[in-house]
Amino acid sequence: MEKVLTLQATIFLLVAVGFMLKRIGLIGPQGQKNLNDLVIYVILPCNILHAFMNSPVEGRLLYYLEVLLISVGIQIFCVFYGRLIFRKEPEGKNKCLRYGTICSNAGFLGNPVAEGIYGAEGLVLASIYLIPQRIMMWTSGLAVFSGTTDRKETVRKVLTHPCIIMSELGILLMFTGWKLPAPVTDAVDYIGNCNTAFSMMAVGMILADINVKDFWDRTVAKFTFHRLVVIPAVVYGVCSFLPLDKNAFGICVLLAAMPAGATTSILAEKYGVDSPFATKMVIFSTLLSLPTICLWSMVL
């Protein structure tokens, strides 16, 4: 729990840095746009490749495969669940809500929480669990924001996106055991390690444009309840009937209980889709995830 508290405090400090940079005028609208592009096209792809390169598969392949299949099922469920629950929302909010339902912040919060509760094995299981989410984030998730009705064009944009290219390369490296040259690996690691800082500062910059009086939003509260309570409860119920190892069971439930990912705000800003609303989703769900993660940890 100490690790969870530390992570939450780190997130909000980074958000505060971005908030202040925007408020004091050190970074203007063009600089903010450039930072978003830097995160999406350079830092995030390197972070994804780094994650795949550090996810071992040797040994308990069947054990990992169980977690992978459950994660695939959860992602498919979230795609349809988001469409159903938020179908009556306005188009801009609908896109943010659907993306936030598909893509959580498990990549940042999930790994250290899994390691803190389940040790090294938990970290490996979390890395395996996150493979489908990383793929969905830049396929179905990206398609939510792209807004094009041309399926071929959507597929083309998604498959040529740097994050998807890095996901494909990462999967190849992970399962073949091939290694990139040391200088390339180090460069990817250094850039990828900037992801948390730059992503959360980008969220803070968007937050700086939101009127404090408008921060409370019933729709955001509804999303937070579904993201942090309903979805993990469904996963808990389904996994209870499966012959899963206790650690695998816990990892699947915990990572399903993570808040909205920072990319919700970043992509909303990139595609001009109600980024203030997306930022409220990220901040509000992250804030409330502190007690809910603690509660799910005790239940498990």
From TrEMBL:
Organism placement in taxonomy: Bacteria, Bacillati, Bacillota, Clostridia, Lachnospirales
One family name in Pfam for this protein: Mem_trans
Name this polypeptide is given: Permease
Signal peptide: none
Cellular localisation: Cell membrane
InterPro entries from the UniProt entry: Mem_transp_PIN-like (IPR004776), Na+/solute_symporter_sf (IPR038770)
Record keywords, A-Z: Cell membrane, Membrane, Transmembrane, Transmembrane helix, Transport
Membrane-spanning residues: 6-26, 38-55, 61-86, 158-178, 224-242, 248-269, 281-299
Family: Belongs to the auxin efflux carrier (TC 2.A.69) family.
Annotated membrane topology: Multi-pass membrane protein
UniProt KW Transmembrane helix keyword: yes
Keyword 4Fe-4S: no
